[in-house]
UniProtKB/TrEMBL annotation:
It comes from the Bacteria. GO terms for biological process: carbohydrate metabolic process. This is Fibronectin type-III domain-containing protein. SMART domains: FN3 (SM00060), LamG (SM00282), LamGL (SM00560). It comes from Flavobacterium beibuense F44-8. Keywords: Cell projection, Disulfide bond, Repeat, Signal. It is found in: Cell projection. One of its GO terms (molecular function) is hydrolase activity, hydrolyzing O-glycosyl compounds. The keyword Signal applies. NCBIfam families: Por_Secre_tail. GO terms for cellular component: cell projection.
Amino acid sequence: MSSFSVEAQNNALYFDGVNDYIQTDYAGISGNGARTVEAWIKTDKNSLPANQGGQGQSVIVDWGSLGTGTRFTFNILFNNAIRLEAQGNGISGTIPVNDNLWHHVAVVYDPTATNKVKLYVDGVLDVEGNLTVSVFTGSATDVRIGGRIDSTNYYEGAIDEVRIWNVARTQTEIQANMDAAFCGPQDNLQAYFQFNEGTAGADNTGVTTVYDSTDNEYEGTFNGLALTGTTSNFVAGDTELAMVVIDNTVTLESGVLTATEVSEGVTYQWIDCDNEDTPVEGATTQAFTPTLSGNYAVIITNDGCSVQSDCVEVVCTAPSAIEVTDVTTSTATVSWTENGDATQWEVLYGPAGFDPETEGETVTVEDTTELTLNGLTIETGYDVYVRAVCDVDFTSNWEGPFSFSTTDATTPIALRFDGVNDYVLTDYTSITGTGARTVEAWIKTPYTSTQQIIVEWGGGSGSGSRFTFKTQNGHLRLETGGAGNYIEGSTSVTNNLWHHVAVTYDPEQTQEYKLYIDGELETSGNFPDGGTNTSAASPVQIGARTANIPATVFEGSMDDIRIWDIARTQEEIQAAMNSQLCGAQDNLVAYFKFNEGIASADNTAITTVSDSSGNGYTGTLNSFLLTGTLSNFVEGAAGIVAVELDNSVTLEGSVLTATEVTEGVTYQWIDCNNEDTPVEGATMQSFTPIADGNYAVIITNGGCNVQSDCMEVTAGAEVCATPSAIEISEITASTAMVSWTENGEATQWEVLYGPAGFNIETEGISVTVNDVAELTLDELDANTEYHVYVRAVCGEDFTSEWEGQQAFVTLEEAVCATPSAIEISEITVSTAMVSWTENGEATQWEVLYGPAGFNIETEGTSVAVNDVAEVTLEELDANTEYHVYVRAVCGEDFTSEWEGQQAFVTLEEAVCATPSAIEISEITVSTAMVSWTENGEATQWEVLYGPAGFNIETEGISVTVNDVAELTLDELDANTEYHVYVRAVCGEDFTSEWEGQQAFVTLEEAVCATPSAIEISEITVSTAMVSWTENGEATQWEVLYGPAGFNIETEGTSVAVNDVAEVTLEELDANTEYHVYVRAVCGEDFTSEWEGQQAFVTLEDTMECEDPSSVSVTDITSSTAMVSWTENGTATQWEVLYGEQGFNPETEGMSVTVNDVAEVMLEELTGNTTYDVYVRAVCDEEMTSSWEGPEVFTTQLLGLNDNVIKGFVLYPNPTTGIVRISAQDIIENVVVYNLAGQRLTEVKVNAAASQINLSQLPVGVYVMQVTALGKTGTYKIAIK
């Protein structure tokens, strides 16, 4: 699991607006994907456009590519409000955010919404709407913070908490967590920069990177930031932003892990670090005792934040080197090596692949590191695990699984050939001539000698007369005699592992010969010299050449030799290679299983092996010792499954059930009284006859059939099914839960239990259970083995058989350990800390205390303590001896003995020293700074002040001060004498004497001078410049204006002006008289009188936005064109609209906004396409000229280039068929293509001038490629 925590600081980054920005390695959301961008910002920059008196836009976050709709820019521009731009168009907010206060801002883009763009300020929707261009964000530049991707429009001010999501967040979601830093992964949060890497205002030049706090772990690199001082550096973030800090340390003591964090509301979840951080079920308290060795950690959650501790190793060393020996049909001996000090182990075993968490049989072993498993099933695969038991509920990890299989008389047996003179000679002449065939075998050999024969027959002097299947130099090989008549593989089969090998010959196939290894085609091919024409000279021989050449004898094991008179397919080979065949098989002509002997036993009495195909052939064993393990019958290939069917049947009531349940098995019940006639439809494992009689079942699997004995059945006999699967759980010292599976329809059962070995006929305790198949046994003896039986009660005197016994052992009697090592610390006048050592597993204790000598039976004060073995005693008497006792509370009415007493004496009553040296400074009209000297250790004081002579017992204003011995008094009356007193606060109801009084007089009331000489200038249709003379020291003024005669008390528009005594009034009505007033703002609620009114009249509205003219298109290529025009007015911004010829400029086309220069390069045009282009001037946000155009142009044919061939001339063009070409240099050749790029004709010229006949081409446009002196020019030519 990934998680992260919020540091105990809340910093932001201040960008200088010159060249500061953060370049991240996060590509952002591309294309038309939904997204949300959030940030906290603080700025006072005027980001209005320059033509509106501002410094231009300030970019908060930007990414993408430069192109219409491909850049995604979140900035501040018009109205000093936030704005979204997707290059070519934008949507602006209305709420100014440049008031130097912290604001949360967000932009949401949802391609599926009616209004796709929404802008939010402080969680409130500002505007929503749609862009006029399509958003398809590019990937040229990764996310940049504080500047635009083209290195312009830098942000000035502070930015914090930048979040980018890949979903369109709702207003509710934005509001829910905009005021808090995230702590922990958030769904759909793709990038999150908190800017907490540095220290506010410090030297952070050593910090080079900011980090993304999501699991994506992006990084941001500083560009331009000085990283020192109060700008261009880390600064303090918004103090209102909630921060969460969690301690993720963990301690380990005596196998117990304890989390340090104990804040109110905190939750815990312990996890297994070695198991993909899987939560440990039920481990949700502060302390955790693992039951298995391993690495563990805790996830601590508080207030929506999660942190994860480091993983801590808790070790009970696991055993190693598990071995299983002496395996029989039903037993096996397990042994292991102990690697620690354990003297007790648990052995867990079950069928191969069982789940060790929920399944298997467990045996406890003491003192010896081996165990014999009994009662195993014949020919069954098992897994076994072992773990050490180091203490109660503390074990090592499981070691294992070690896999083994029990043996059985039907386990496949193989023949081991000694490589000297062992071979099998059969009486089967086999397939002769060119007949199709397949030979299969299982082999196991480590020897890579020149050749080892698997099977051979035929022979003689003719080419292709023998058929020899063997290994040669470790590879599989087939030979038929004659030079070159062989096929050989390349994969080694001599690695001492069992391999299934096969060769097929099919004269009807293109590739006649094929070799297979483990069912996969190894190689195929044909013979060059006569192919196959097998003679009948020698019968099939296994393990040596028919000529008995010693150098060809096989050394190793062979099993399951099969010869077929067809060429089998790969699918047929794969389908049957892993199981012994049972019953007659089509086209199988010889089959030697080698199951006649017993593995590694004395088999000297056996002289032959039998053919199992049904043809009755025999193989004679030659030279085999038939004892030991090197020249004898041995254990066969593990990959061969011997098919054995259980033909037993059970009868319960009138229901017959076959025992065999192997996968793929089929059933057919037959009537023994009616000549074994099949019972129609009776093909399931269970069968209920409708008539009395004798019945049996025929069971079929893998080509094998068995029939059960006939069994007499009385139709309609009632059955009371025996329960099964008794389980014992929730075992304690005195109780246990018993549950079982009901296999019929019983709703009542009898449970019988007692000490191990009790007689179920005469002893035990019987309990009747109704409806629910479970029962809790209680009042059991601790540490005692019990046996349990269950049977169904189907009616009066009608019960099933007993199911059982099921054994279990109750737990040992619980002990409530007495605590020890009581310690008293942090003793004060009235408090003391008591701690102790818990010696068991108690998490609750009782602490009893009182004056020395109190009676613990009847006196003292009792305190209940949970989870942490410590408590602070409070409200103690000073200078008094106390006694303390502690006991563990292990359950209701279950406690340990008292530990104690532990004595201590509280401190004497403390003295609270009186402050001194009160000083009054920084006196103004309404404020004054009070400071004093602290003479003790107080960190809190009370300051009391009021008009001179006030009564300190009943009057005055009281202020509490913490940590710093100074205070600013405010809201004082001007020119007034005050008295001040100070005292220390050393504790609740524990203060020093008053120090004082200290007297001072506030300054006289200040004067805010009224401005004068208001002037109106630069009057236009909608604007006017107002200026005035400042007669005092004010740097802020209020300008109030409105239509002539407006009421200045209740009407008019107010504008706040800073620093410069002038302002431009905007958005005025044309040809209207206005009145203007000005007053100075000298402080909060402290202004001068109004100066005015000053009257003026705006100009008449005669302004027009002139149309551009002279639109021209130059520099046309296949994908670009330069558009320019003449500006006939004063516009510095234009809109260019273009599209394929004939597009509707009212509803279609691609729009490009152009600033300052009356030209633009159109890009990404389509080759050989005619376009219309229009231009209009943008004179104001809502004022544009008419469209000028269309100007028509056609892009070049894709692939045409400049005339790179000196002096090249092509004419006539268009042509009717003959075209003449010439150049300064020798023209080498000419190639003509159609516009689809298909080559139509080529002419070798090798002259400086020539004519080309193209009359064979139909009317149309073509591309001519001309080569001269190694240079190639491409030209368009038309044929009419």
